[in-house]
## 1
Amino acid sequence: MQDQLKQIRIEFDSQAPSVSTPEQWQRLRSDYIGKKGSLSLAMKELKSLTPDQKREAGKHLNDLKVYIESRLKEIEDGSVLQPKASTRSAFDPTLPGRRQAFGSQHPVTQVTEEIISIFYSLGFSVEEGPEIETEYYNFEALNIPKEHPARDMQDTFYVEEETVLRTHTSPVQIHVMENCRPPLRIIAPGKVYRCDSDISHTPMFHQIEGLMVDKGVSFSHLKGIMDQFLQKVFGANTKLRFRPSFFPFTCPSAEVDIQCVMCKGQGCRVCSQTGWLEILGAGMVDPAVFNAVNYDPEEWTGFAFGLGIERIAMLKFGIHDIRLFYENDLRFLKQF
Ligand code: DAH
């Protein structure tokens, strides 16, 4: 009897590993522990044994049965026989599709790209400069010497002595002119920093600087380019006004206003009842700046301008508080 049981176990062990479907598992089970399975047949043979032999053989038979049952259970628990939960639920064609959530471009980025593309069409290329600058690039080379009151116009963040977070994009003019010979036409968008914070000022904001240098560039070129540019941003028929102003790096200097986009010049809260909105600073490059970069002011002339991107975006989209740009509130950002 014991030999017979050994044989049964050897056979079971050789068949069990190849079971890979529920049907094969059922067959294995009934072949061994089913009513007409090998173990049941062996059980029947117990009758013919003496009581002692019966007890001995019965114990081996039972051990084998427990072993086979546990192996069958193992196989059943194994992944092969489980109808896989993942395959059943992987694709349910009756479910509605999931919508892809789309983001949108930040209004400051939108306006920056619009301005870049306008100047690109006018033959300007895009340049960048560092946000951490030496005082030389941020001030001195732009004709703002130490102790000059013009430094007070911009509340400066100092990183360390002589090193500042740039307060404007104008230092990019210097980098470009140091590295290139004229003629040149560039714009330089980027972040600038000032120690200032209220409804229309944030410590970081964005500017675009522009510079054109060539032989015979005059103030009328500046006017023509500003006219083209602002008509494209604020719509054809936008009226411009040039007001005399002062910047150390341009001479003569001007501030450029557009007729108020809200009230069309009638006077309203946005334009403080003046009918005009200040948009940018500009002027003819000061000879002192050309001297700093070794351009001969007798040979070359040029104009420069600088504008705040947030200001343009606020006027274009009717945004009243500059801080909204930086709160990352999706309800605000999704409108653009
Ligand atoms: N850098 C000036 C500012 O931040 C803006 C500016 C004015 C830039 C006149 C210019 C310019 O290039 O010609 O206030």
## 2
Amino acid sequence: MSFDTVEHNRSRQQFDGVSSVWLFGYGSLIYKVDFPFLEQRPATIEGWARRFWQGSHDHRGTPEAPGRVVTLIEQPGALCKGVAYRVSPQVFQHLDVREKNGYLRFSTPMVFDDGNCAEGLVYIATEDNAAFLGPASSLDIARQIARSTGPSGPNSEYLLKLAEALRALGDHDPHVFELESHLL
Ligand code: SIN
């Protein structure tokens, strides 16, 4: 798969006749909300673990020195907490460009904090994408984050803002918080 997933995503879901779509955010989409939304609710998806295993060549690193950002890895029973946004389908024109470095839109069931459920879309960078970096020790990941920077700013800012946002959601993500403590 090429680095740029924009065209790929455009052909994945048809929004004809649909006035709004739920989007589940679990990484920068939690704290950097640069798109309009109709409604916003904390939510959880099951079977996925958040990991700093995706390379960032366009936002928090460069093609020569990629940073690390989160993607979701399939893990039975795991719970991933995030924020669901109800958006108009046009918003995906912007989001597909923002998430173009390897992320594809997948459909997922989501559970809101009040127990209600809905189907939503989530951007996941699967391990067959060209920017996927995969696992490394938490110290090595934290070191890579500490030295990386890109057009959207320092990679450390991505990690620190995500940790802060997860804390505000009442989530305890051991992977993210361990990296945060290494970085600090
Ligand atoms: C997300 O936040 O849901 C996707 C990954 C990212 O943009 O950081």
